[in-house]
């Protein structure tokens, strides 16, 4: 009886999600059947993540192990996680000014515990965001801020980019939107050319099971957006994704792509009207 009820609730949630343009949500797209649906916010609220560092007072450029315990509100561990983009957990680490970005993959130790060893490059505040999907609940993210000891470097301003291509690792990447608006699903297109020859790049390799991986954060780090590839098997020069900005304001976007076995990360700052 309870199972049937849950199935009905899930169906209602999915139907609502498809009509609702106000939030970060998932719609089944063609060819993306392996995608994990997003958790209902209420169910996500029943899950908690406890973040711990191996050193309570971490210093810059020091190996630090981050432990993340995923639990029910009552403290019981959550044991099973769905694989999303080839991993059971994605961990994003950003500095407060979003100038530092790191995307790493903790190992699952069982009983809801994930661990990963990393370094923070400077003193200051860092946000650590875990993106995961408890089996049967759906994709969600939980975050925590940490202070790295020492003198914090002057924050770099987060300034929206002009519509020029960004050059990273010999690639010239242009980001465009079909309509840049808040509270509405929109398409993002990354067009990738060789920076020197201006020739379109057509040999992108799958990265985490798709044409690329995109992370979007609001400038204060408060909103982490789910972004879904719309053409999973593309090889370039265009890489297309779908997202919905939850409010207007400044957001930073990192696109990650792989070519010739090497991942390159392209950051953009946009102002959503
Ligand atoms: Cu990841």
Query: Which blocks of ≥5 consecutive residues have pLDDT under 50?
Result: 1-34
| Cα-to-Cα separation, first versus last residue | 47 Å
- The coarse overall form would be globular
Q: Count the DSSP helices.
A: 2
Structural class: mainly beta
* Overall mean pLDDT: 88
CATH homologous superfamily heading of the largest domain? SOR catalytic domain
Helix content: under 10%
Going across the major beta sheet, what is the strand order? 9-10-11-16-15
**How many beta strands in the DSSP annotation?**
18
CATH architecture of the largest domain: Sandwich
Using the coordinates shown, work out and report the CATH topology of the largest domain: Immunoglobulin-like
- One letter per element, helices H and strands E, the order comes to HHEEEEEEEEEEEEEEEEEE
Bound molecules: copper (II) ion
Query: How many strands, what sense, and barrel or not for the largest sheet?
Result: 5 strands, antiparallel
The total domain count is 2
């Amino acid at each position: 009886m309870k199972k049937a009820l849950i199935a009905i609730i899930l169906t209602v949630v999915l139907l609502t999600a498809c009509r609702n343009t106000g939030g970060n949500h998932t719609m089944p797209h063609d060819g993306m059947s392996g995608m994990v649906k997003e958790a209902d916010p209420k169910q996500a609220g029943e899950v908690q993540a406890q973040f711990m560092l191996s050193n309570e007072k971490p210093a810059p450029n020091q190996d630090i192990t981050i432990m993340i315990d995923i639990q029910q509100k009552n403290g019981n561990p959550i044991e099973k996680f769905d694989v999303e983009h080839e991993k059971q957990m994605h961990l994003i680490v950003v500095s407060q000014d979003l100038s530092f970005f790191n995307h790493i993959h903790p190992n699952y130790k069982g009983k809801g515990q994930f661990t990963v060893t990393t370094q923070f490059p400077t003193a200051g505040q860092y946000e650590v965001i875990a993106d995961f999907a408890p089996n049967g609940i759906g994709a969600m993210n939980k975050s925590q801020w940490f202070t790295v000891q020492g003198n914090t470097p002057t924050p770099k301003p987060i300034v929206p980019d002009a519509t020029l291509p960004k050059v990273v690792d010999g690639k010239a990447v242009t980001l465009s939107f079909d309509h840049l608006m808040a509270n509405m699903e929109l398409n993002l297109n990354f067009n990738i050319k060789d920076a020197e020859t201006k020739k379109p790049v057509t040999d992108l390799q799958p990265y985490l099971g798709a044409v690329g991986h995109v992370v979007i954060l609001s400038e204060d780090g408060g909103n982490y957006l789910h972004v879904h590839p719309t053409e999973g098997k593309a090889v370039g020069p265009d890489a297309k994704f779908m997202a919905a900005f939850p409010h207007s304001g400044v957001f930073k976007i990192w696109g990650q792509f792989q070519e010739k076995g090497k991942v390159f990360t392209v950051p953009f700052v946009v102002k959503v009207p």
